C-alpha cells in the first residue's frame, strides 16, 4: 500500500486539478498493475462489502489501544472520523515490516467477509499492529466502506487517458458496466475487449442547474424543452445477445424491472436508449410520485402486488446507438427524430414511450409552462441545445435543469448533534419540529445549508443551552427557528409525524421569527395532499 498511500497524500495535499491529474497519471504509469486496477475500482465506487461493522471496529480498536470504550467514544466525537480516530489512538506498529500491496490488502479484506467475528478480529488487529500510520488509516477507511479521495470520475478518466495515450471518451466507456477488479487486468480494463455480449452503457450526460431563468441562453428556437421527471435515470441497452438496464450509478438493475423484458423482442439489435424509469399510473397516464418507485428500488425480486400497484415505464429522451452505430456525436435534434421514428414503430402497449417535447414560442411561455410542472408530476424543466452532442459528464452550457422552487416550512430546532470530519467540533446535524396544537412534533433532520460562521454561532448556543444529553445528541430549548426546504413529501408510518421529506436542508436561520410562529403539522399535511404523496398500503412481504 506504500504507493497508494503516497498517492493519497499527494491528492490530499492539493486542491489543484492539474496537480491531482498529474499525480494520478504518474501512479497509473508506475504502480503495480493489480494496484492500478483496484485504485480505479475504488475511485469509481466499486468497493467490496464491509468486513466489519463500525461497532466492532470501535471495540477492537479500544481493546488494542488499552483505552476504555467511553474514552474512545469521546475521542471519536472530537476527531469526527472513525478511521482517523483509530489510526491516532492505536500504539505505533510493533514491527517494521513493509506494508502489503493494495491488491493483497483488498484480497485479504474480501476474504474476511462472512468469517466468524473472532477470525475477523484477529486479522484486523494483526494488520493494525504492522501498518504505518497513513497505511493504517487507509486500511481502516477501506474497512468502513467510506473511502473517498476527492477525485471525480472525469478527473480519473483524464489521468488514465494521459497515462495510456488513449482518448478520454474510449477510457470512459471502457470503465462503464460490470467488471470485477480481482478478475480484471489493467490492460483488459483499458481495452475492454469484450468476451461475449457487450451490455455496457455509455457515460451519462449530465445537466447543470439553471439559476435565474433562461433569458441568457439566446434564441428560444435553438433549444428543446421537456419535463424533468422525478424517477431513476437509466440506459436501456439492447445488443446482440445482451439486454440490460443500467442506472446512472452504473448499477445493473434489469432484474428489478421485469416488465421491460418484452422490449428485448421488439428493439432492433444495437440500440441504446437514455431515459427515465418511472412508476406509472395507468389510470391517469401520469407518473406516480417517486415514493412509489422507491418501494421497488431496494428489492432484488418484486412481488406481484407491487408490480400491479407501481408498474414501471421508461420515458425515453435520447437515442445513443442505433443499428450498432454510436450516434452521440450527432445533434440532439437528429438523435431525437430517430428516437421518435424508432418508438413509433413499436406496439403501443409496451412500457416505453418518448418523453414529450414542450412547444414554446418564447422564454415567457416556457416560464409559464414551468409553473405547472407539479401538475404533470415533474420537478421542473430540462433545456437542451438542439445542436448539442451527447457528452458524458457535466458539460456546462448545452444541458440545463430548471427545477421548481422547493417546498419550504419554518420549523424549530429541538435536537443537535456534532458533525464529522472537519466539522467534528461543530454542531451541524439538527432535528426540527413543527407545532401540533400546543405540542411539538419532530419531522425532519438536516445538516446542510448554513455557513461555517452560522454553525459556529449555533454551536456556542447549543453548548450554553443543552437541556439533556443522549450520547452525542443534545436536547435544546425550542427557540431557534429555521426555514427548511425540501424537494418532495410523502406519507411515512415509520415517522412519528407520519411524514417523510426528500432532501431536506436549511435555507436560512430565521432570526426574525419566534418559535410560536413556526408552521404546523397541518401545513405539512396540506403539502402532502397537494403533492399527491399519499401511498397505498405496502404489500405483504410474502406475496
Automatic annotation (TrEMBL):
Tree of life domain: Bacteria
DNA damage as UniProt keyword: yes
Occurrences of domain ATP-dependent DNA ligase family profile (ranges): 305-436
PROSITE patterns: DNA_LIGASE_A1, DNA_LIGASE_A3
A single GO BP: cell division
One MF term in the entry's GO annotations: ATP binding
InterPro entries from the UniProt entry: ATP-dep_DNA_ligase, ATP_dep_DNA_lig_pp_1105_fam, DNA_ligase_ATP-dep_C, DNA_ligase_ATP-dep_cent, DNA_ligase_ATP-dep_CS, DNA_ligase_ATP-dep_N, DNA_ligase_N_sf, NA-bd_OB-fold
Protein keywords: ATP-binding, Cell cycle, Cell division, DNA damage, DNA recombination, DNA repair, DNA replication, Ligase, Magnesium, Metal-binding, Nucleotide-binding
Top-tier EC class: ligase
A Pfam family per the record: DNA_ligase_A_N
Entry EC number(s): 6.5.1.1
The name this protein goes by in its record: DNA ligase (ATP)
Naturally occurring in which organism (per UniProt): Fuscovulum blasticum DSM 2131
